[in-house]
UniProtKB/TrEMBL annotation, chains A, B:
<keyword id="KW-0238">DNA-binding</keyword>
<feature type="DNA-binding region" description="H-T-H motif">
    <location>
        <begin position="49"/>
        <end position="68"/>
    </location>
</feature>
<dbReference type="GO" id="GO:0000976">
    <property type="term" value="F:transcription cis-regulatory region binding"/>
</dbReference>
<dbReference type="InterPro" id="IPR009057">
    <property type="entry name" value="Homeodomain-like_sf"/>
</dbReference>
<dbReference type="InterPro" id="IPR050109">
    <property type="entry name" value="HTH-type_TetR-like_transc_reg"/>
</dbReference>
<protein>
    <submittedName>
        <fullName>TetR family transcriptional regulator</fullName>
    </submittedName>
</protein>
<dbReference type="Pfam" id="PF16859">
    <property type="entry name" value="TetR_C_11"/>
</dbReference>
<dbReference type="InterPro" id="IPR036271">
    <property type="entry name" value="Tet_transcr_reg_TetR-rel_C_sf"/>
</dbReference>
<keyword id="KW-0805">Transcription regulation</keyword>
<feature type="region of interest" description="Disordered">
    <location>
        <begin position="1"/>
        <end position="25"/>
    </location>
</feature>
<feature type="compositionally biased region" description="Low complexity">
    <location>
        <begin position="13"/>
        <end position="25"/>
    </location>
</feature>
<feature type="domain" description="HTH tetR-type">
    <location>
        <begin position="26"/>
        <end position="86"/>
    </location>
</feature>
<dbReference type="InterPro" id="IPR011075">
    <property type="entry name" value="TetR_C"/>
</dbReference>
<dbReference type="GO" id="GO:0003700">
    <property type="term" value="F:DNA-binding transcription factor activity"/>
</dbReference>
<feature type="compositionally biased region" description="Polar residues">
    <location>
        <begin position="1"/>
        <end position="10"/>
    </location>
</feature>
<keyword id="KW-0804">Transcription</keyword>
<dbReference type="InterPro" id="IPR001647">
    <property type="entry name" value="HTH_TetR"/>
</dbReference>
Length: 207, 207
């Protein structure tokens, strides 16, 4: 769990496979997806072997084949599960605090070795458009969580109506640059400044 | 020249080598750097050969060796020249218009094949820290242009004092995500919304 996140609820995000509901098969699927993500991060997509996935997940090789006859679909699902678990955004009723916490978790995931490795693996294989789609779908899912929080804030009248896709990019874009440039540390203070300026700017520019 | 940039001054950016002052040696150096950037984009850094650079630049191989005995320094200088030519930011006296134009040029460079290829080539060689430094230095140079424009706006009282590094990341971060996600087009309207919200937010949050 990230140190500087205030709400204790985000601790759930760490307990990935066991926390998933749905009995044994759901648990097996979740273990396979986690193992796949780890192996993609470690060896890239080209080197991905079902035997290794099964071994790392502690399941029978047939379970992998039966659930995912298609390898691209397996990678896509694995990245989606990873993305969903990556950036929790809880609705505590305080939009500013929720967004600041979201940006901090987002920044810590972006700087994790698994995220960097996935980025490298996927950029190294730009010809594989299915994988490209999988990565983008995973990012979309991650940001969809932020979008839902925005939509609910608009509904409750906390902020004026906004294009939630646009605002999500506006908030998370600078985080992306801070992490990837490594010129200045991304701190809670920076996250708060981003959220404050963007929220104030939205209020000020809405007629 | 990007279609939707209003000021005609940015046309200068296209006429790279010839526009550089300083006589024959400066012109030769500039041609070598442009050829280096193109070859890095085409083949990556590992495959870079001085013979090919000389041939593409139309200069003698000895000119390349004499000016850049060190290959990493050559790549670094090439990326820096590319970055400087990439994102012109003219001071027309209208901060909003200048920033909108800057974001549009920035977005077009980010989506160019040469930028994408450089990104791939450098991410594929993460162990090469000199190259990594060169890439980051090039980005810094590109953004330093925006920072200077901000500092001058602060001096003239157009905006309250700001951390220009922070604001530059705040403005260019969303552009980066729009281009790399390819989910929605990056238009002049989007650029204007980013600049308007950020400028209004800075005014509103400054005591």
């Amino acid at each position: 769990m990230p140190e500087n996140v205030e709400t204790s609820e985000t601790a759930d995000a760490g307990a990935r496979p066991a926390a998933r509901p749905g009995g044994r098969n759901a648990r097996v699927r979740s273990q396979i997806l986690a193992a796949t993500t780890e192996l993609v991060a470690r060896n890239g997509v080209a080197g991905l072997r079902y035997e290794e996935i099964a071994e790392l997940a502690g399941v029978n090789k047939n379970s992998v084949y039966r659930n995912w006859p298609d390898r691209t679909e397996l990678v896509s699902d694995a990245l989606l599960q990873y993305a969903e678990d990556s950036a929790p955004l809880h609705d505590t009723g305080n939009l500013r605090r929720d967004l600041v916490n979201f940006l901090i978790v987002f920044s810590e995931r972006l700087s994790s070795s698994i995220d960097r490795a996935i980025l490298q693996a996927t950029i190294a294989a730009p010809g594989n458009t299915d994988l490209d789609k999988a990565v983008r779908a995973a990012y979309d899912r991650r940001l969809a969580i932020a979008r839902r929080r925005f939509d609910s804030a608009v509904e409750k009248g906390e902020i004026p109506p906004v294009d939630s896709y646009f605002v999500t990019e506006l908030l998370s874009g600078p985080v992306y640059l801070y992490i990837n440039r490594r010129r200045h540390p991304f701190t809670r203070e920076v996250a708060e400044k981003i959220v404050d300026i963007v929220l104030a700017g939205i209020h000020a520019t809405t007629p």
